[in-house]
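Preliminary data (for renewal application), phenylalanine complex.
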Amino acid sequence: MANEKEEWKSRIGFILAAVGAAIGLGNIWRFSYLCYKNGGGAFLIPYIIALLTAGIPLLILEYGIGHKFRGSAALSFYKIGKNWEWVGWWPSIFVVIGITFYYTVILAWCLDYIWYSVTLKWGANSADFFYHQHLHLSNSFWHLGSPSTIIFVGLIIIWIFNWLIELRGVQRGIELACKIFIPLLVVLTTILVIRGVTLPGSGKGLIWYLKPNFSHLTNPRVWLDAYGQIFFSLSLAMATMIAYASYLPRKSDIVGNAYVTGFANSTFSLFAGFAVFGTLGFISFQQGLPPSEVVKGGFGLAFIAYPQAISAMPVGARLFGIIFFSALVIAGLSSSISQIEGLVASLIDKFGWKRKKIIHIISLLGILVGLIYTTGSGYHLLDLIDHFISSYLLVLIGFLEAFVVGWIFKAENLRSYVNDISNIRVGKWWNFMIKYFIPFVLGVTFILSLKSDLVHRYGNYPITAIIFIGFGSVILTFLIAFFFYKKKWKTAGNIQN
Ligand code: PHE
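Predicted structure:
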């Protein structure tokens, strides 16, 4: 029995949901750091080239197949060819197991930090506070220690949000939430930007962020960083965008939607960078430190450098702490629901299960598995899993997608399909990108990552951890995906024609 297909209420609703999926923690703490590290303003060149040559073409691909087959990743790839269905299951599975289950724990930290902001609890040494009081970081990988109550409470709250939003379905859940979250996020970020660029010393920070240094552009690493960031940030190869496009009405401007999502996401990243670097310039001014001491990517930025700046703010320190961490929670929540939706859509399409039942199970698993990440070793564990999933799986699935659509389904067929329904048409260059260019870039990335992991032990973690947790998580997600792929279709209506 085929399920009634859910649909977005409006085009703007879809765009906000897709932008919500794209904008996440990565935009706020990763983009600006990469800019700084890779030649400042000059980095915008590879970044925009990556957006135009891989980001937008793949978005058109994902929106195109999700819309054409009106299906989740699993159903869309099944319809391309029965033997390719697993290419849709793999991202549906790995995103939830390999990303969401730790992504929600980071959101729990952000929630805890909203609470800490009320009293500026991190005190004078924000690094010590983060690693010892907050994470209870253990000094060896295999030494778990006990779970942290405050992180676990945060995790439960985050999952309650995911659960409530997902349970209400596409229109009343995801679309409505993103219609509230995205404007709110823009308002909060604008406040942070204004504050960031008006702090004493902020000008120096902005110079670090954007002063172009073109000599970096000859370094292949810089280009790989640009492609990697575009990939993760636009949530490509994650089943998400395919599922979201399957809820579009028949007449939809696929190409236009892809451009809007791509540019909105990058513009937001660039904008948020002003808040980040204005504030970092301020810390350096306050404490007389060089950039190498204050500019950090990822966790170091959000949980160590930023809190330090908040404490030093002349007025409204607590309020800015609350605003900053709330912005992270909001940006991250619209991403985590999108990650879950990719799997939900595949399961509903294939087995006709009820949305409710799937959401109950995923949420419960999220809390149980997340418990491991709340222990003293959680930080090591999520760092290792994140490294392996984003270095290998994203790249591999992106490669498979481009290959299957480009060569099996034929790029030209999808191009003429999207051109028939879109207001803007996409030229023949798109076929070239999908068939040759994207597989090439991803192939090179894969080989370079593998080479570097075989030469250096990532993060100096024990070799057993690298094999069992790192490579193990990649293989485990494949086995689970294969299991679902092998099961019989219970929804005959979905796979006819
Ligand atoms: N793109 C999101 C970010 O930048 C993360 C994400 C991953 C979202 C997978 C959806 C799917 O943080």
